[in-house]
Amino acid sequence: MMRMTDPLAPVVPAYFHPAVAGEEWRTLSGVADSVRLVVANVASGSGEVADAAYVEAIDRLRRNGVPVAGYVDTDYGHRDRPDALADVSRYRDWYGVSSVFFDRVSSGIEHIPHYRALAANSRRLGMELVAFNHGTHPVRDYAEYADLLGTFEGSFPAYLQTDVPSWVHDYPAQRFFHLLYDTPAMLADTVATLALERNVGSVYRTERSGPNPWDMLPASFPTHLATG
Fold first, then answer.
1. Which positions ≥6 away from 213 have C-beta within 8 Å?
2. Strand partners, 149
3. Which DSSP symbol is given to 75?
4. Cα separations in angstroms, 167 against 160, 182, 199
5. Crossing angle for the helix pair 81-95 and 112-124, nearest 10 degrees?
6. In terms of DSSP bridges, do strands 148-155 and 129-133 run parallel, antiparallel, or are they unpaired?
7. Model confidence at 8, in pLDDT bands (50, 70, 90)?
8. Distance between CA 128 and CA 88 in Å, rounded?
9. CB neighbours (10 Å) of residue 63?
10. Which of 71, 13, 82 is nearest to 47 (CA)?
11. Is the peptide bond before 10 cis (omega within 30 degrees of 0)?
């Protein structure tokens, strides 16, 4: 079942290790009413063995009612399905996660059978929520198989230039999320306005940039969409 939250409640890419950024994870454990989903990325996936720091951190979030998804890379349809599903199983077994966040998801029609099978098999493995992060608008068919679609990932200048296909407005805004980096707090109101116009129910904005702009929470989190 999809979890309904306040408009623009973010999908949080928590790509920082609890042993290094413990305070960040403690902050996340207290924001159950302010986030759509927290994405745990252990090792560009589940890793090969259970990580005790992640076990503890994710358990704390779950006990506090914070929804958590496991990060699974799909290499735009080129990663073998059994390998991706092995990640899903490990997140379930090691971390008690019941949602999956598929990243680097293809946007073209040619890979729809692959992602349809990924979603169906993930649900059979116990995943109650399936998210596809395309980083751009995919063809409409993908919306039939995922609960959440990531249809933008990039910086603010790119966000201004983004075109939204008409089919997006046929679905509830809560089906879509956007991830913005290198976007300072002074632009938060503009981002929120654009997102609402584009029928997007979940936005994450950070002023951080670089190879991994998701390596810490925004300075104003969890009120990071307010310019304050």
1. 181, 182, 206
2. 132, 176
3. G
4. 19, 28, 10
5. 30
6. parallel
7. confident
8. 12
9. 9
10. 71
11. no
Tokens coding 117: 């099978």
44 conformational bin, left if phi > 0, alpha if psi -120 to 50, beta if neither: left
Each residue's pLDDT tens digit, 144-189: 999 999 999 999 999 999 999 999 999 999 999 999 999 999 999 9
CA angle 69, 126, 10 (to 5 degrees): 25
- pLDDT > 70: percent of the chain: 95
**What value does the mean pLDDT take over residues 17-28?**
96
Per this entry, what is the length of the chain? 228
Other beta carbons less than 10 A from residue 89's beta carbon: 16
pLDDT digits (tens, 9 = 90+) for 38-62: 999 999 999 999 999 999 999 999 9
Identify the pLDDT of residue 220: 86
| Alpha-carbon span 197 to 180, nearest angstrom | 16
As given in the structure block, the two tokens for residue 209 are 């940039």
Taking the C-alpha atoms of residue 173 and residue 226, their distance in angstroms, rounded to an integer, is 19
Q: How many C-beta atoms surround the C-beta of residue 5 within 10 A?
A: 18
Q: What is the DSSP letter of 8?
A: B
Phi first, then psi, for residue 221 (nearest 5°) are -60, 140
Cβ neighbours of residue 153 closer than 8 Å, sequence gap 6 or more: 133, 135, 136, 178, 179, 180, 181
Is pTM beyond 0.90? Reply is yes
